[in-house]
Design a protein that fits this description.
The protein is built from 20 helices and no strands. The chain is an all-alpha fold and 487 residues long. The chain has two domains: 376 residues, Sodium/glucose cotransporter, CATH 1.20.1730; 74 residues, no CATH class. α3 packs parallel to α13 and α9 packs across α15. The radius of gyration is 22 Å and the shape is globular.
Length: 487
Amino acid sequence: MDAHPGRSYAFPVSCPGGALAINWIFISIIGYILLQLLVCFAVMRRMNDEQDYLLAGRRLGMPMIAMTIFATWFGAEACIGAAGIIYDEGLSGSRADPFGYALCIFFLGLFFARKLWQRKITTLADFYRQRYGPQVEKLGVLLLVPASVFWAAAQILAFGHVLTSISTLQLDIAIAFAAIIVITYTALGGLLADAVSDIIQGTVLIIGLVVIFVVVMADMPDTSVLAEALSPERLSFRGQGESWMGVINSWSIPFIGSLFAAELVTRMLASRSPQVARNGALLGGMIYLIVGLMPATLGLLGPALMPGLEDGEQILPMLAQTHLHTVAYIMFIGALMSAILSTVDSALLNAGALVSHNIVVPMLGSTNEHLKVRYARISVVSFGVIAWVLARGAESVYSLVEESSAFGSAGIFTCCLMGLTQNRGGQVTAMSSMLAGIISYGVLAFVVKYEYAYLMSLVCALLTFFLLMWFESEPVQAQEPITQPIA
């Protein structure tokens, strides 16, 4: 997920070996993409019903859960963006990547993974229907879907930029090509194809980052020149002159704003058992933190390794361009591509699942499993096309994504937290809390221009729930039947 989505990511336009090397990189990337499509077609034959398509039949074991959580969450911004912001600001810029999001994954796995799995739900919106009623389910979909679509659009745009940097393709053509590839293998293969691809993409991502980290650290200059880069100011998690209110606000967005992110919850629900859901999340969070520390460390040492960069986000591409030979550079580009692909397919599948399962299927009253899968695929393709259209308006997408990570998530967090931990509060309480979070954030962020808009929207959502829950008990909702998970 994007810690700093308003920042545009800088990709290298040349590489070791010149034009010939760029051709080999492009050929390698095309081969890598074809491998993803082969995985998709192989998995398609195992699609029998909606559960297979949306939750991989609830058969995923702990290694696959851990890797798909890591790969889904570790986008291009966790490489380029995190290294860049730490280059510019020191560790005070690293609250989201890797520390905030790793803490978020740990917390969800430790305290809520079992409870969510035991609900036998298919999407996060199902929880709202079970716990609060159908109207809250629909409002939850309206809050969850836009962030996924905008995020997918930004990742498709980043994919297009990578393609243009290693080929002669124009940006519009590269974006269209990226959208077609992602839409195809996500729509056809569902979550199982997504999870299998995440293992491939996550492995390539880890190898690529390990290569650049080891090579750069082996070429490290005399340690005396690192003193300025490791000054107390740069090692502090609190920026110079920053208030404690600002520190709390900046930590709350990645941690609270993403704690019940639908893409993350889906991985819990696809687990083979509640124990797998819990342990897979803990292992995935550990992998995220360890791997995320590599670009973070290079960003921290960046002023000594590459002093004077106007744009801190150039640090990782510039280090790769300077230190890596062609084969290693191809692995680095593969790591960036993997980070992008593993994020965008999850975002599109999540948006499609929410709309098809919680809106379209109930509205049409369909009980045919093949039709349910078809509706889900149509939804994924539709949102993929919308993401492609948004990606073509790059500047507007970046500004929208910047707000989508915070807009509405205060109410989502509040209703999930309270619904999973106590029995008071029903439909009116939950809807009021969600609306309080949305309205307060909109007014404070866009009208008042308040610096701590997200933190205050969270306070408004929590207070609304606390005030109303005493007057409304939990509605009785039937648990949805589910087939026994395959061991």
